[in-house]
Amino acid sequence: MVARIVALNSFGYPLTSLEDQYQKDNKDGIQGYVSSGIWLNASYINHSCYSNVRRSFIGDMQIVRATRDISAGEELTFWYKQPETTGYKKRQEKLQNWGFKCKCAICADDKKTLKRNLTMRDNLVGDFNAAYSAPRGPNIAKAERALTALEETYKKPATEVPRLALEQPYLVLLKLYAARNQAADVISSARKFFISLGFLLTDIPVSRAPTTTCLPFHVKRWGLMVDSVLEVWLILWTAYAIVAPELVDMAEACAKTAYKICIGEDSTFDQEVGVVAREWIGKKVCYGRVEASVDRFVWHRSKVANSGHDADIPM
Ligand SMILES: [Zn+2]
Predict the structure, then answer these.
(1) What is the pTM of this model?
(2) Cα of 272 to ligand 1 centre, how many Å?
């Protein structure tokens, strides 16, 4: 019984969350975490895919930060496993060691969605991938059309039910635009990326924005704080410098907030990402062009998913 209590309440953790994010760790073949522990207060926090706090680690200190405004009396939740974008069944499988089924808004909605709609969703993701990886180069128009159709498979507003299947496609598209230094298109894709994750945005009209679809924006309410949100803000920061230089400080502040939520602190922000981003801002180039820099912050879903409550701890 004691072993079971320990198993259900332990957290596997990295030396620091910052170190955990580096791709080189994975290349070195480090799997999972060597440390685990129990934090009494954090053990009371239940799982939700649509969670409102995130945990990070510095040594044996666990830091739990809000990912959006939380009302008085509202339950704090973080995910034990970062939610799978590929549907209800896979998400529940990842949680089976804890012996519960997630009933968050995302899971409840997936469960109610007709099977043919879910199949259509999978097919449209396939269409996007095929268009994006076309042998003669990405067919952007086709890829964008697949994503518009994918959005239509969701019935509820994204603020109520984040549209997980859209996260990776919009991220991929945004990075392609960044690699081509198409700042306006980066902003346009970032807008769709954030909206699909339940963020509420406020447009900020600027004279240099060529169309209304690529208007810069501010976040009115943060949505689902998956790892890629930080990556997108880092790229957006440099895109704003091209399209809306007057908003660069605001974009930097958002990148810093996302960094702090994921890493636990922001005192390393400049040395890890800020200095490089500012260099490229000076050259009027989107951050995504510096593949080496962005790749340092390529988030490894499988590895990140293992942080915190760790299903691999024997029960
Ligand atoms: Zn869920």
Answers:
(1) 0.87
(2) 32
